[in-house]
Amino acid sequence: MKINIAQLNVKTLDINTNCSKMLDVLKESDEKTLSIFGEMVLTGYPLYNKNLYDKLYQESALCAEDICKQNKSFIFGTVVKNEDRFFNALVFVDKGEVKELATKRNLNRFDTNFSEGNGFEIINFEGKKIAFGFLDDISNFIKRKIEVDIIVACSNVLFDKQRSEELKEELSLYAKQSKATIVFVNRVGAEGSFIFNGESQIVNEKGERVALLPAFEEKTEYCDALEFLMPLKQLMLPQEEKIYQATIIGIRDYFAKNHINKAVIGLSGGIDSAVVVVLAVKALGKDNVIGILMPSEFSTEHSITDAEQSAINLGIKYYTIPIKDIFQSSLNALKPIFEGTKPGTAEENLQARARCLVVMGVANKIGAAMMNTSNKSESAVGYGTLYGDDSGAIGAIGDLFKTEVYKLANYINKEEEIIPKNSIIKAPSAELHYDQKDSDSLPEYDVLDRILKEYIENHLTKEEIINKGFEKQVVEKVLTLINRNEWKRHQEAPALRLSKSCFTTDFINPIS
After folding, report:
1. Which long-range contacts (CB under 8 A, 24 or more apart) does 453-460 make?
2. Which end of the chain is less packed: N or C, by CB atoms within 10 Å?
3. How many degrees, rounded to 5, is the angle at CA 224 between CA 218 and CA 229?
4. Which residues are paired to 292 by β-bridges?
């Protein structure tokens, strides 16, 4: 008996394309092979409220009929409707005939409008007793203590910085508890903010991983799940490599699945835009990325040269469009209200919005999308301008703290200087007034990010954070800023989710 694991990058609601991918896989399998596809492989996932429409079930059923005509054996994920109830289901097809359904029992936040199912089901294939169902339900199945040869667990598991190691340990424990070989099938690719990293795998009854499909890569692999002799000794990807690959596939799929060909990025000479433009070029190609330099009267000479060097190093087309005239025109229009007042945040924000005006104007003219360059530290404390630098179609580094952005920049430069060295070593600044530095209004990022991590990712209270040795006044200021700026985060560009605490998808506070 052979197993064919199909780790595919599918597109939500593009059922015909997803069906074609499945057919391509099945053409290569024989009658003794069980091909295993992932959760919702036919429809894409998450569906949100789209599973309320009958058309989805009709199209899915027609494509499923076409697949069954191949007279092959396989397990695949799709939506199932029974009267007025909707289910997230896995379907077992034996030589072209539907034999069994496993419907998800423990529903998660993406299973909107689905009803609770029955969990794992048992099938027989080529003399092997196989349990199949969703990873969400595997713990319940193991508690039933049913002896099987193989457990097939399919689920669309989201990527985050810790999830790969956690999943490895979970599957190892489940295999030891069940005394069965576990075949786990995950999808790969991205949907909006959400990234799926693949890493489908087989774990033997001793809890040893004996097969592993690559991360962030569409792949099918044939193997015999019960005849592995040696556990794998593959090393996990370094943290920065995971983040690098995740952001690239996140950008690539966002643009491809939304039928956008080009990206426009404002280049400031700072670390954030320098990192984002590298990621965009790796994802979309240098011919599809355009940089816009928008110096103001407060821009330093090295910021302009650093931004130019970043574009030159990557070989992208770039333009220099000063914003002085746009800024002055805005001030002139607002003179009846601003006159006699001290310059401050309002004037600074006008500059950020002038830059957004330019970048969005270029993007609209050429049918491109503006990429956001804000990081998680800035979003956390509201250090950004709404309808200015907070804008964009997608935020590549919006779930990375500033210190993590520096680590990623150094990783990118590990073999050659792609990001100008000066962009990495100079003090961060928004350059909205003379000699401005981020540290003028914020704690140093090394301190800020450690406080943010304790509060946002480790969920510690103010008192617990202070007890770790941070200054009470600084902690109180940071936490106040986090809570005060929730309303702003709801209007920022969506960020690629790289952690369990991404703003607007995971870490959500009351707005007021």
Report:
1. 453/401, 455/479, 455/482, 456/380, 456/482, 456/501, 456/507, 457/499, 457/500, 457/501
2. C
3. 110
4. 266, 319
Q: Which residues make Cβ contacts (< 8 Å) with residue 345, sequence separation at least 6?
A: none
Q: Are 158 and 196 in contact (CB under 8 A)?
A: yes
Instruction: For residues 36 and 21, give the distance between their C-alpha atoms in angstroms, rounded to a whole number.
Output: 13
In the predicted model, what is the mean pLDDT of residues 279-293? 98
Q: Is the dihedral of CA 419, 425, 430, 434 positive or negative?
A: negative
- The continuous run of DSSP H or E covering 318 comes out as strand 317-320
φ, ψ of residue 188 to 5 degrees: the values are: -130, 155
Please name each of the domains of the chain with its CATH number. 2-236 (3.60.110.10), 242-439 (3.40.50.620)
State the average pLDDT over residues 409-419.
Answer: 96
Q: Copy the structure tokens of residue 448.
A: 């800020």
Instruction: Give the relative orientation of helices 301-314 and 271-284 as an angle to the nearest 10 degrees.
Output: 20
What DSSP string runs through 420-469?
A: -HHHHHSPP---SSTT--GGGTS--HHHHHHHHIIIIIS---HHHHHTTT
pLDDT tens profile 449-491: 999 999 999 999 999 999 999 999 999 999 999 999 999 999 9
Residues 239 and 161: beta-carbon distance below 8 Å: yes
Beta carbons of 274 and 419 less than 8 angstroms apart: yes
Q: How many C-beta atoms surround the C-beta of residue 293 within 10 A?
A: 25
Alpha-carbon distance of 101 to 106, in angstroms, equals: 16
Which tokens is 264 given?
């426009």
E strands, 365-414, where? 369-372, 394-395
- Sign of the C-alpha dihedral computed for residues 56, 60, 61 and 66 taken in this order: positive
Q: What is the pTM assigned to this prediction?
A: 0.94
pLDDT of residue 202: 94
- Hey, which bits of 200-254 come out as E strands? 201-203, 209-212, 219-223
Which of 101, 179, 181 lies closest to 147, judged by CA?
A: 179
Give buried/exposed letters for 442-461 (b at 16+ CB in 10 A, else e).
bbebebbbbbbbbbbbeebe
What is the phi/psi pair of residue 344, to 5°? -160, -140
SS3 label, residue 94: strand
| Interacting residues of 307 by C-beta distance below 8 A, sequence separation 6+ | 267, 268, 269, 273, 274, 291, 293, 318
Kindly state the greatest CA–CA separation across the chain. 87
